[in-house]
Amino acid sequence: xxxxxxxxxxxxxxxxxxxxxxxxxxxxxxxxxxxxxxxxxxxxxxxxxxxxxxxxxxxxxxxxxxxxxxxxxxxxxxxxxxxxxxxxxxxxxxxxxxxxxxxxxxxxxxxxxxxxxxxxxxxxxxxxxxxxxxxxxxxxxxxxxxxxxxxxxxxxxxxxxxxxxxxxxxxxxxxxxxxxxxxxxxxxxxxxxxxxxxxxxxxxxxxxxxxxxxxxxxxxxxxxxxxxxxxxxxxxxxxxxxxxxxxxxxxxxxxxxxxxxxxxxxxxxxxxxxxxxxxxxxxxxxxxxxxxxxxxxxxxxxxxxxxxxxxxxxxxxxxxxxxxxxxxxxxxxxxxxxxxxxxxxxxxxxxxxxxxxxxxxxxxxxxxxxxxxxxxxxxxxxxxxxxxxxxxxxxxxxxxxxxxxxxxxxxxxxxxxxxxxxxxxxxxxxxxxxxxxxxxxxxxxxxxxxxxxxxxxxxxxxxxxxxxxxxxxxxxxxxxxxxxxxxxxxxxxxxxxxxxxxxxxxxxxxxxxxxxxxxxxxxxxxxxxxxxxxxxxxxxxxxxxxxxxxxxxxxxxxxxxxxxxxxxxxxxxxxxxxxxxxxxxxxxxxxxxxxxxxxxxxxxxxxxxxxxxxxxxxxxxxxxxxxxxxxxxxxxxxxxxxxxxxxxxxxxxxxxxxxxxxxxxxxxxxxxxxxxxxxxxxxxxxxxxxxxxxxxxxxxxxxxxxxxxxxxxxxxxxxxxx
Length: 722
What we know:
By secondary structure, the chain is mainly beta. The longest helix has 16 residues, at about 240-255.
């Protein structure tokens, strides 16, 4: 299939944020290109910035320009810490404008960002136009690669919208101390080769900056409606009501209150409500928003924070916000960020998600997202989705999404034969995508289908003689394929070189589901029956030259729905079950080789009703989807007694709000059901969780909630941050 042209512009919707005649915002492009080698850039005189508080300027902010560094340390909390490089400082004028200091020098492929601390709010037409300096105001913009400094007429916009975009997209990479904001990463999760990850080096920080610009381009200060896409669909839908709510929340902290004269009642409420359990009150409004972004599972004040955003500013008596039309948002006394979440009834956290809509990726020969089932990532965080036509599938195909832009890389041709009923999907380190089908068309053998990861061209089908009802597939470090059967057993397909595979003798066990390979090249598979056990194929050789003994099974695991498995950094298996005696199970190995024994025990409780496939992130947290209707995504955090739940405000396709562009796909509130028919998820090097909602036909990326991980599973670096 033809690769789509990468879009550098994103679709946007104005949020009523006045530009105040600055005349600096000359474009909406998101510059993400990277030169072929490290290059120093000095900014031309035409690079300027603008700081706004809502739709009004904020004067005399302290501006700091930072450069990211690759000397950060991966911490046990799933975040990188370290000290970024200060490139220069300046001060905005009374109108909030500033010029890039001539001394700034930035070296690509490093990235840079701007922080604006303090400032004097100007409230436009209100009677109290000149407020006292708000010492606790702080905002930022995640700009991007240093090569942006080589462009002419660049404008950098900073406000609450850019701040919310930055802290959510960069959550695993940011640390704040007072007015110092450090964005760092380790060398192995930095810019990769020419800004792109390889099998040996992920590029999470680069990708995270792209995510921030997908939400709000650095030169606009305005949320995007979508990440981009082809001529038929807009691309990944941005959940604007959630982002508008978060931005308005910070705005209330920056403006202080509607009383004027240095009354910071709303700011003090924001800082108090975002204080982490047992922690210190945030020193700035940026730190408050970062606390929300980094602590979604233990922010206890979700509803009170939402209730704070019901405050209308600056005059509580105005009615214009209730009458949502574009004309009203030009009025100075309406909330500057819109739309907002209409209700808190279904709001359990503030997870920011991008949703890829039903139909996305459609071509003349391949269906778009219809019933997406399983998902996998390559070393560059590109996303590959096994896509059926319906619950009783008549055809299947694969859709590849370039995750840094949201653009379609390719859509494979519809397959009504060997891939008519798609199941699990995996990617190897040789640029190949593999997936299996539960059932096949008349006369078609049960097989593994292989595609070229760059073009989507079907390369071959590999017959799976002796296995039926295929359920899982994994690729090991030697690019051998491991396939499980939902009827009974598994088999290895050895990579013999030259893209040929030799089928091993199927091993009969019980019905199996997800399969994973640990760092010692042992093979783990979860049973898919009511007699729950973990199956383990011990490697009696070495990691470089594996050899296998007979499979070993664990002690019984209580409950039902045991289907998924993840591997932690110790080589233990993590899984979830439902029903009596349920919870999160950890299965450990005693002994080696043929003498190995397995023991499974409960390590946490969970409310999961129908667990399916799962993955561990960079600190060994186990993430699993719940296939039951209206249920969230669950995460077991090591050491936490109960698994925590995430129910992001998934964008509802087809929903509209007053003032939205005609035909836009935008949610109007949180939805209680979210994704339905969830079967699989994957975690990338930014800490984003990608999951499928088969019945709703969408794929969703939840930004920055997990610990960054190695996206290519054949690297077998489970529970280790890049």
